[in-house]
Every structure is written in structure tokens, then in C-alpha cells.
Write a structure and sequence with these properties.
The complex is a heterodimer. Chain A is of the alpha/beta class. Helices cover about 40% and strands about 20% of the residues of chain A. The longest helix of chain A is centred in the first third of the chain and has 25 residues, at about 1-25. By secondary structure, chain B is an alpha/beta fold. Chain B is globular, with a radius of gyration of 16 Å. In chain B, the strands form two sheets. In chain B, strands 5-4-3-6-7 form a five-stranded mixed sheet, covered by helices on one side. In chain B, strands 1-2 form a two-stranded antiparallel ribbon. Classes of the chains: A alpha/beta, B alpha/beta.
Chain lengths: ~200, ~200
Amino acid sequence: MKKNTMVTLIIFLLPFFLAGVSTAESEPDVELLPTITLTVPENKAHIQYLGLKGEPGTPFTLDEIDADILMIELFSMYCPYCQQAAPTVNELYKKMEQSKRPDLKIVLIGIGANNTNLEVDTFRKGFDIPFPLFSDPDMLIYNALAGAGTPGFIACKKDGENNVIFFRKSGGFTDHAEFFETLLKRAGVKEDDHVR
Amino acid sequence: MFASIAVSVSAVLIILMPADIIQADELKNFRELIFVPETLKPIDSELKIKVGDAAPDFILPSIQGERVSLSQFKGRKNVVLSFVPAAWTPVCSDQWPGYVFARQLFEVQDAIILGITVDNIPTLYAWTRQMGDVWFPVLSDFWPHGVVADSYGVLRSDGTTERALIIIDKEGIVRNIKVEDINVRPPLDFIVTSLSQLNKEKKRF
């Protein structure tokens, strides 16, 4: 009698146990992009690049940017390593633009951590940076993104309604093409899927 | 004594300013040498100058091997005195690299920076080597210790200096002063706005 009760209990509990295992497997830890508000830039080309609909000077959130993959560079005008990395990051931007295709839009933006608008503008002019840069004078964005040094790179992609962070790198890189390939791989874009 | 001073100088920085992570091996090694102190009293001295005063003249040795005086720029350049607390500390270690990078902003205002700390020349020389092409004189107020900083009222009680910016016009007159919280880097905007204002006023005469 006791044996039968035990068997019944196991049969009864088994689906719950399996459901628990299955839930654990199907829900790996995901890091969602936090809600971050920026200001629509004045530069019309940048507005178009970001796919924004708002007027210059109005607020927008990062998830409004029209991108399948959004790469965020954390930098500071004062950081010699960011200065050193800037030309290579420009090359990365060019590579992203060259690899554009209708079903894969990759967008790059920069966040000037602890930098004023003037400092960000000085950095932009100094390196002729073509992609949009935003100032983060109080480091609110840097902290919300859990930045870990400058230069730093954080990439996210759309996953249904969410924007999921799938890539983080602290420090610069020397080979922009290799960095780009790594980014695509981590995003789950097959090599054959994109234009080299 | 110096250890505890240095400890105090840059603490919050690591919080306020990211610990820069690096690309080149030598730069990585450099960053590992930076000392991270605890949070310091924001300001620990009393100014002895005010806007409109004649800036106290001085002559100090530079890492470039010359002795540099304030008066040698009279009639030639606007001067930005940039006192920073100590070499090998976080905020100081990225303040001047920003000025190195922003050279054009100073040149367009016909200005020179004189960077001053109370460190000795060998220390300053080693520390500034990672900053790229340091185009402005870096001066040592090491001995007699902090005499120049004290003449401006920016020598702290622990023997370091405040993080101070003093804008001096071509006539040698103090035109603007900013003694920043030692734990925070002053925005470039203060310098650019002050110099720009100064030059605008000059044009009116």
C-alpha cells in the first residue's frame, strides 16, 4: 500500500519536476537594455541614421532607435585610450555601413561618460567621428549600462519586444574587421548571411 | 605621510571617472600604476587672490628642462594655470590628457596652459610620458615645497594642491578662478568660456 502511494506521488510530482528543469533550460539569464533617455540630435543625417521620428531637442529612448543591432561605445574625451581607439572605431563604423543590407541594420552610437556637450563635441571634431555621440555629464547613462571603463562597448539586439544585451567588451581593439566578425557571431548572424 | 596624502587624493575618482581600460600594453601597464586613494575633503585651503588682482609671478623648473616664469608670457599669451593635486592619481591622470587633446581650443584663444603640481621633476616626467605630446609646460612646485601654490592660496594642509584653474590675461591680471572639488574633474567649458569672454572684452577696447 505504501509502495503504491509512493509511486502515485512520484507520477504526480514528475511533471512538475520536469517542468522545473525545462523552465530552467529555456530561460537562460538575459540582460535587458535599461530604459535610457537621450535627446534627438540636431544633425539631420544622424536623425535619419537613428531612424528617429522626434524633433531635434526632444527626448527619445534607446529602444526607439531603428536597429537590429545597436552598438554603444562608452568613451571620454579625457581618456588617452579612447583617443587611441577613436580611428579604429571610425573604421568599425565604416565597416558597419559597408555591410548594410535591408534585413540587418547595425547602428553605432557613442556616449561621452562624464563629458559635457563641449567635451563630446571636441572629441567628435578632433577625430572627425561620423556617427552620433551623446554627452553623459553625470554618468547616469554609464552607470545604468553598468559600464566598466572607457573605452567600452555594449551591443544589444531586438528579441521580440525586448532589447537584449548580448555583448560587452571593456577596452579597445586593434582589428576592426575581426571585432565586427565577433560582434556578428555573438549576435547569431551567420557569416554567409552578411556581406563581407 | 605622502602615502596617506596620495591615498586621499583620488578616491571618488574611480567612482566618478571610470578606471580607463586600455588598448596598448604599455598603457595598460601605466594604468596599473595609478594609485587609488579614498575620498578627500573637497577644498582645503583659502584663496589668496581674487579676480582683478595682479597674478603673483613665479619661476619654476619644467619637465622640458627650462625654467618657466609667468611674466615671460606677459603681453604675449593668455595663461591658464592648472594646479592638479598629485601625479599618479586617477582624476589628475586624465585631466591633462584632455588638455593635450584639446590644444586647438587653447590656441584659438591665444592661450597657454601652465600645468603645476608639487611633485618633483622626475616624477612629473615619468607620469606625463603616457599623455602623448604634452604641448604645454609642466612645472614642478616641489621645492621650496608648494611656495607658488601657497602664493595663490591653493596649497592644501596635506602638502598637495587644490584642483584649481586660474585664468590670467596678457596683462598678468587674474580674470577668473575655479577651485574645483578635488575629487572631480573641472569641465573644459570653464576654461573655454573664460578665455572666450576675456578675448571678447579685449576686442571692445
